[in-house]
Amino acid sequence: MSTAAMDVEARNAGRDTRCRLCLKKIEIAQTAGIDLLENQDINRLLLDVYRVEVLQTDEGPTMICVPCYSLLVHYYKLRIRCLSLRKNFRLNQSVLLAQINAFRGKN
Ligand SMILES: [Zn+2]
C-alpha cells in the first residue's frame, strides 16, 4: 500500500466510507464523496427523491459517491418535471370540464 493510500486510510479510520446508496467504498472521501451531514441540501434531495433520511446520529454510511449524486440530481429533475406536467394536466382537465359544463348548461 502506498503512503498516500495509508494516509487516506488513517484519516477515514473508524468512519464508514462506503456510499450510502450503492455501498461501494469511497476511496478518497475528500474528493470522490459528498458528506450528507455537511451538505443538508443534498440530504434533503435524498429524502425527497428516495425517501432516505440520514440523521446526525446515523449509524450507517453518511456519504454518497459522485456517480450516485449525479443520478440523484437526474431523478430529482425528472421528479420536478413529472410534478409540473401532472399539475398542467390537472389544470387542463378542469378547464375542459368547466367548458363541457358551460356548454351543457346552454342546451
Ligand atoms: Zn454510490
UniProtKB/TrEMBL annotation:
InterPro entries: Znf_AD
Pfam families according to UniProt: zf-AD
Annotated ranges, domain ZAD: 17-92
GO CC list: nucleus
Protein's UniProt keywords contain Metal-binding: yes
One GO molecular-function entry: zinc ion binding
Keywords: Metal-binding, Zinc, Zinc-finger
Keyword Metal-binding listed: yes
Signal peptide span: none
Residues annotated to bind Zn(2+): C19, C22, C65, C68
Protein name, per record: ZAD domain-containing protein
